[in-house]
Amino acid sequence: MRFRLTPRETSFYDMFAASADNIVTGSKLLMELLGADTAGRAEISERMRAAEHAGDDATHAIFHQLNSSFITPFDREDIYSLASSLDDIMDFMEEAVDLVVLYNVEELPRGVEQQIEVLARAAELTAEAMPNLRTMDNLTEYWIEVNRLENQADQIHRKLLAHLFNGKYDAIEVLKLKQIVDVLEEAADAFEHVANTVETIAVKES
């Protein structure tokens, strides 16, 4: 059993958990976006921007701790990769909301709600998994399920693209909506990157 009692080591776990909890906040704001009117979307965008800034702060705190710590709980490059991937998720979610507002999208295409539901589930799983980095217990099901969700997100994304190109939308609207669904797909990919990094860490620590 590893001897891990130094304060600097344990602080990383708390910071990863805080970053993941913030992503859950972002995923809930995405869910709110689905049923909001134009005014409501603008307000949600402001809250998402604040959450994204909080995510940036959490990431910077991890990097600062990494640069000032002599001892780390696992490899430095893995800490950096995990923090960066968590930050990417928040960035993509914030970008998607911002695009909806900036493009003044009146109605999101059918299927976007499924994309967001997948992201919300991945966010919950990620937040549940981060505290388990302390012991490396009960993580296998996490990365398997997130990878499954990413495959599901790929299928939803392909169906959305087929829907967008079926002739129902004009060319400008297609460009707007495609950018939004593409960014949501990138968020799903980023969740998978987090899960893959956790798997790498767990393998090294086993």
From TrEMBL:
Pfam families linked: PhoU_div
InterPro entries for the chain: PhoU-like_sf, Put_Phosphate_transp_reg, UPF0111_domain
Domain of life: Bacteria
Record-linked Gene3D superfamilies: Phosphate transport system protein phou homolog 2, domain 2
Annotated family: Belongs to the UPF0111 family.
Name the record gives this protein: DUF47 domain-containing protein
Source lineage: Bacteria, Bacillati, Actinomycetota, Actinomycetes, Kitasatosporales
